[in-house]
Amino acid sequence: MALIKSISGIRGTIGGHPTENLTPLDIVRFSAAYGSMLTASNKSAKVVIGRDGRISGEMVSQLVIQTLVGLGIQVVDLGLSTTPTVEMAVKWENADGGIILTASHNPKEWNALKLLNKDGEFISAEAGREVLELASKDAFQFIGVDKLGAVTVNDTYLDKHIETVVNYPLVDVAAIRGKQFKVVVDAINSSGAIAVPRLLHALGVEDVIILNEEINGRFAHNPEPLPENLSGLSAEVKKSGASLGIAVDPDVDRLCFVCEDGSMFGEEFTLVAVADYVLSHRKGNTVSNMSSTKALKEITLKHEGEYFPSAVGEVNVVNRMKEVNAVIGGEGNGGIIVPDLHYGRDALIGIGLFLTALAQHKNGIKSFRSKYPDYFISKNKIELEKHIDVKDIFEKIQKKYKKQPVNTEDGLKIEFDSDWVHLRTSNTEPIIRIYAESNFETTANNIALRLMQDIKEFL
């Protein structure tokens, strides 16, 4: 079905033909290319590996691990883990890099190799290009039997990650415990079934209901934590009289909440609420990608900080955060990045900070949500055929809207007074994403529909 090779990793559907899908041959080739890049500067390199709960996870993990062993690399295998846990473990292990085996929000037939540097952050564009070049030429050489690498299994890092969240200075466990929250968690049949309940108990939340708890990778619904996929969570929150609901994606780097009446807090406002709380204690700048809500900019200005947009993609957000010394940042898809913990999206620290802010609010989560504006983002996508020239389409659209302010840093963002629309190709799927924001839901939908018609007209 698909194999997407990008500078940040390799993503595709399991099965099919090599070079067209994510087959065992492709997994070995790209693992060998990444490992060869590392061993070029350190013959005794160490790499941390972790995976989410996907059906293909164990197979992919074994292929990656043994390929690295064949290059003489020392592998630390975390087994079933979360993306942010692997990122933190790279630094704790003083490793040369890491590979996270997850296709994040993609359906069950997908998997991916997300590649990290020695800082536990996604590799740079330059390093990514080097990996792709090495893979394209099969430019790697395996070592002899006397110098094979070794594998160490370590399943303690999730607990260390949770301990770090619990001890984070802005997380108030006593306040959370005092509220006696009842929480429903949609664990989407993956790593969140272990990580989120364990964190909640450590934060003093005793009454926890887990939906889709079995870790089998056969996702009970579309795994992207969007409102249309969370009807079951919403119903259970209302039925059980819970204080709130929590949803994460399969690798636990995205986070969203459901209010006590079953309504959505809004994944765009996960970052807004956490940033509001952090900025009330630490003055500074914020960053989000340009497909995220304008509410973060407004909150930042209220706290006398400065807001900076970035191109979409975690590595781009992180780079901009470093440039402007941001104290909090992330993406409107529910990705929270707390830089003094680590430079990566992390649902676990997001839960700790959000529950602290909620615990300090007098009333429930619905009342808490009312602190923030009701902006609406219409999120849409159009699937692409392989031959489509997206650059040409965007140039034609830019010409059509030449009287409007336009940003071409990442696709095409067009501003209409206080509204905006952002068109860009996905980093993870063969699609064009069309996001539009307005104060009114119908306006946002109409802007998005208008641009989708433009795209189809120029196809």
UniProtKB/TrEMBL annotation:
<dbReference type="GO" id="GO:0005829">
    <property type="term" value="C:cytosol"/>
</dbReference>
<dbReference type="InterPro" id="IPR016066">
    <property type="entry name" value="A-D-PHexomutase_CS"/>
</dbReference>
<dbReference type="GO" id="GO:0006048">
    <property type="term" value="P:UDP-N-acetylglucosamine biosynthetic process"/>
</dbReference>
<dbReference type="Pfam" id="PF02880">
    <property type="entry name" value="PGM_PMM_III"/>
</dbReference>
<dbReference type="InterPro" id="IPR050060">
    <property type="entry name" value="Phosphoglucosamine_mutase"/>
</dbReference>
<dbReference type="Pfam" id="PF02879">
    <property type="entry name" value="PGM_PMM_II"/>
</dbReference>
<dbReference type="InterPro" id="IPR005841">
    <property type="entry name" value="Alpha-D-phosphohexomutase_SF"/>
</dbReference>
<dbReference type="Pfam" id="PF00408">
    <property type="entry name" value="PGM_PMM_IV"/>
</dbReference>
<dbReference type="InterPro" id="IPR005844">
    <property type="entry name" value="A-D-PHexomutase_a/b/a-I"/>
</dbReference>
<keyword id="KW-0460">Magnesium</keyword>
<feature type="domain" description="Alpha-D-phosphohexomutase alpha/beta/alpha">
    <location>
        <begin position="161"/>
        <end position="262"/>
    </location>
</feature>
<dbReference type="GO" id="GO:0005975">
    <property type="term" value="P:carbohydrate metabolic process"/>
</dbReference>
<keyword id="KW-0597">Phosphoprotein</keyword>
<keyword id="KW-0479">Metal-binding</keyword>
<feature type="domain" description="Alpha-D-phosphohexomutase alpha/beta/alpha">
    <location>
        <begin position="270"/>
        <end position="369"/>
    </location>
</feature>
<dbReference type="InterPro" id="IPR005843">
    <property type="entry name" value="A-D-PHexomutase_C"/>
</dbReference>
<dbReference type="GO" id="GO:0009252">
    <property type="term" value="P:peptidoglycan biosynthetic process"/>
</dbReference>
<dbReference type="InterPro" id="IPR024086">
    <property type="entry name" value="GlmM_arc-type"/>
</dbReference>
<comment type="similarity">
    <text>Belongs to the phosphohexose mutase family.</text>
</comment>
<keyword id="KW-0413">Isomerase</keyword>
<dbReference type="InterPro" id="IPR005846">
    <property type="entry name" value="A-D-PHexomutase_a/b/a-III"/>
</dbReference>
<dbReference type="Pfam" id="PF02878">
    <property type="entry name" value="PGM_PMM_I"/>
</dbReference>
<dbReference type="GO" id="GO:0008966">
    <property type="term" value="F:phosphoglucosamine mutase activity"/>
</dbReference>
<protein>
    <submittedName>
        <fullName>Phosphoglucosamine mutase</fullName>
    </submittedName>
</protein>
<dbReference type="InterPro" id="IPR005845">
    <property type="entry name" value="A-D-PHexomutase_a/b/a-II"/>
</dbReference>
<dbReference type="GO" id="GO:0004615">
    <property type="term" value="F:phosphomannomutase activity"/>
</dbReference>
<feature type="domain" description="Alpha-D-phosphohexomutase alpha/beta/alpha">
    <location>
        <begin position="8"/>
        <end position="140"/>
    </location>
</feature>
<feature type="domain" description="Alpha-D-phosphohexomutase C-terminal">
    <location>
        <begin position="394"/>
        <end position="448"/>
    </location>
</feature>
<dbReference type="GO" id="GO:0000287">
    <property type="term" value="F:magnesium ion binding"/>
</dbReference>
<dbReference type="InterPro" id="IPR016055">
    <property type="entry name" value="A-D-PHexomutase_a/b/a-I/II/III"/>
</dbReference>
<dbReference type="InterPro" id="IPR036900">
    <property type="entry name" value="A-D-PHexomutase_C_sf"/>
</dbReference>
